[in-house]
Amino acid sequence: MDFLTDWITGWLKEMLIDGIMGNLGGLFDNVNHQVGEIAVTVGMTPGAFNPGVFALMRTLSETVVLPIAGLLLTFVMTWELIQLIIDHNNMHQVDTWIFFKWVFKTMIAVLILSNTFNIVMAVFDVSQHVVNNAASVISSNTAVSANMLATLRTDLGLMDVGPLLGLWLLSFLIKVIITVMNIVIFIIVYGRMIEIYLLTSLAPLPMAAMTSREMGGMGHNYMKSLLAVGFQGLLILVCVGIYAVLIQSIAVGGDPIGKIFEVIGCTVLLVYTLFKTSSVSKSIFQAH
């Protein structure tokens, strides 16, 4: 009878250990893959990320939004001329130079509006150049050590069935949490690219008001928003670099289960900091 009991106990332990290692062994594969892809994704220009969507946004901007921006520019420059005349005592003291000034500002405004897409892409080209240079410096090796998992399996073999059952349930819960965090990382990184496309599609409208005294703030804040979302990629890359250093600094020795929880804590910290990159970038460039 003791032989049968020992056999059943051994069988249960092996089954639970296999289940725990199955949950934890491939636990971080998706996260590691997703984190490894972050440097590639944030280093792409809008055109390289998804050429189809980029072409759609450009067509929408140039065929739908640009004509409206032209009307806005006409109103803005007409209002600007009226203000120039009123400011000089309702034409009782008219200087010829104010009309040259108005013509020059109008020419600059038309030039900016006609090259809106080139200006927007230039901002992202500069930010992506910085991100790509940073990617070569920041390490993105976030793989969990295979030795850690091997040590974990050895330690699990020394545990009883009861603790193993509880650890199996805990490992299943951890797997669900890590999967959710993997989805969150995907949303944050790809959400930034969607935000870039949204900003790009409406670019002519704020650009039309760039040279206006009364409405120029709209164009200035738009440029700040472009810089903020562009350089957010650098902050995302910094977060990944910090995460990689923290993961690599986790020792192999000691309590392997505790090390697994440290890795989970680092992953939660990564998700939190990725959420903060947008607000931090906007606060730096004073965009709102």
Features:
288 residues, mainly alpha
List the helices and strands and how they pair.
Elements: H1 2-25, H2 29-42, H3 46-49, H4 51-87, H5 97-114, H6 116-135, H7 146-156, H8 161-201, H9 204-208, H10 216-248, H11 256-285
Care to describe what's here?
With 288 residues, this protein is mainly alpha-helical. The protein has one domain (2-73, 116-285). 82% of the residues lie in helices and 0% in strands. The radius of gyration is 29 Å and the shape is rod-shaped. The mean pLDDT is 78.
Helix content: over 70%
What is the total number of structural domains?
1
Which stretches are poorly predicted, pLDDT < 50 over at least 5 residues? none
Q: Separation of termini?
A: 74 Å
How many strand segments?
0
Overall form: rod-shaped
The main pleated sheet reads as: none
Query: Class by helix and strand content?
Result: mainly alpha
Mean pLDDT: 78
**Element-by-element helix/strand order:** HHHHHHHHHHH
Rg over CA atoms, rounded to whole Å, is 29 Å
Q: Per DSSP, what share of the residues sits in E-state strands of 2 or more residues?
A: under 5%
Number of helices: 11
